[in-house]
Fold these 3 entries.
Entry 1:
Amino acid sequence: EKQCVQYSAQGQVSYDFKNAELYLLDLFAGKPLIQLEVRMFQYSNAEAGSTYALRQKVKQEPLTKEMMTAILKELATTSRARACLELLETCVSFLQATGGAFVQVLDVGEKPLGEYVKNVLLLGSAEFGSKIISEQVLLKHIDSLWKLLRDFCVTDPFAAVSPKYREKLDAASHDALSKAA
């Protein structure tokens, strides 16, 4: 430290960064290098809808109409689709975090999604609830699958409301309701 810091007659401090660098190199010379892995990823629903970073890392392509129809038929219910969507969001988070800021593009688009979950994420017991998703959907289809599942899971909160209660209010009723509120 004393070799890197000097004080002037007026009491000002000046740093010799070149000397500091040489000191650190000497200090750590001969020490084994370590490979640091900082595990960071976005948890499910932490920032829902954010597949922008994924599209930057893995080139995305849309699913075929036939595959979309078959997936929705196989999942059948919104609860199964939601469970699938949660697992998919975990995959998206890991793909987005892979390589950190240093890796801009990943060449993994042709890898099947089910294989990625089992062999890379080591989530052997995780199931998408669809054989088509596990075996035929590739990593390059994740964005399309995410949008399909999101749209399938979003339900109209007024779907079960009787049509007679969904009729537009006349002006007088609207004014009376506004005044009461």
Entry 2:
Amino acid sequence: AHKTILKADAVEAWELEKWHTQRQQDLLQKEAQFKHTKQQELIALQKRIQTGREEQKKQRHQDLERLLQRYQNVKAELEAQQNLERIRMEKLVQSGALTSTYGKKKNTNNMSTNNLQSGQNTANND
């Protein structure tokens, strides 16, 4: 009977050890699977972040291009307006309309015309 008890204890100890070993292997496998899953999630998240960065960079570039185009359009429009104003002023000065209309203010008008012309030159330099 004593041998049977010892043998039963040995079998129980062996089964317990086998169960612990199997459990340890299962836990290690689950841990490895968990790590793999988290690594895949991290890679996917990094790809989303990179895609977002590239999209943001592309959007900023498009915004910059739009602003530069708007600037060029406004600049061209202002230059055209100034050029028309300069031509009108030159015609008025050549026709003598300013001198006959204003009489003694001839020098003042010439200075205004010169100022407009120098303003046009400054605008063209931009």
Entry 3:
Amino acid sequence: TLRPDHPVRRLTVPHSFRTNSINHKAAYSLVGEGELVHRATALTAGGLKAAFDARRAVEGDLWSTPSAKMEAQGVVAGDVALPLHKDGKDFFEVVAKYVRASLASVYDYETNECGANAELVAFFEAMQAKQATSSNFPATLTCETLEDVLSIFIYQSTA
């Protein structure tokens, strides 16, 4: 983990504070067997799981950008009027610029100072270890890959 005053931790905490516990409680109370979503649909528990699995297959991997996810879904710009399709790419671009500016104020991209920082390497390797074997999480830490991972994380936590 990163120390409390680490620049990357200071960048991500406002976007992730208590996110895991909130999402866990929401998933447990909404999607669990016999809970709201299960009772409100005609799906069995197995059918509900299959629906979520199918959605993940269509959506693409967790560490894909919104553009890549839309492409995997077959969404063409302006083709679908869902709010996240309509505004998601623009919002992601704002988040990515914010993350890049934050990282570039601390780390030199040209010399890949991110990949040489022992604390960041340990953080990145811990994140890699938590990924599913099918994950498209980046294999190598560079300032660019850290920028992508943090941008996707912040986007998914707030969008």
